[in-house]
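Curious: can you check?
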Amino acid sequence: MNHWSFAHMGYQVWERVFDESTCRRLRQRAHDIVAHHQDNGPRSIFTTDESQRVDDAYFLESGDAIRCFFEPEASRGDNQARGPSHICNKIGHGLHALDSVYHGFCHSPKWRPIVDVLGVHGAQVVQSMVIFKAQNVGGPVHWHQDACFLATDSKPVIGLWVALEDATIENGCLWVVPRGHVQGLKRRYVRDDRDRLSFVELDGTPLDTTGAIPVEVPLGSVIALHGFLPHCSYANRSPKSRCAMTFHIIDGTAQFAPDNWMRTPLASTLGDRHDEI
């Protein structure tokens, strides 16, 4: 795909950008973080079910921290017996700035040609996550637009999704709506001065997911997602995990909206190093 494809389709795929060794190192670092947290940190449950969202300080203050969030099924004894990474939903949201392994990955020169195709100048990473999507228990991520949660004053945020393992329909790959970004942004998730979170509707029409397709990719592949593009992933009930790393970037000329849920993003320039990690 070329630059026209991203602008036209709202997403783009680069297969096998990163090798098995790099992906294995990133997965192992994630497992180590969760194992350490299991012994030293609180058990915060993450869900995309809007009726069950919890606006606690542990989540609200994670923009400039590294914090672990667990699956709703984490309390089941048989899941706990399989190890902490099996019951962790994700780690976020300052990995790119605070952890040496992910910081190095963020600065890999392999990002430069991707950023150039996307037409982003001085790309700034404002959020990073490792999403485990563990075998048998990996929870769904419902249809959404990234710019709902990470708005700017001009060019929309772009998501960069890296498959740290093969992503298939069976283990919960991404689904997208080609050209769905032309709908525009439907709503925003905002934080008020009293730290209360709420959705603000921007137009009265629902998000249209007609024509959605799965994006199955091999390990090491990168998927770029326009901030307005509807996308989701379904629960993983297969015997294979689907670990992924996600960066959210904004153009260097864009300003992070002051009423975003995340108030203290740690910005880091993407792909500005000349040597390999």
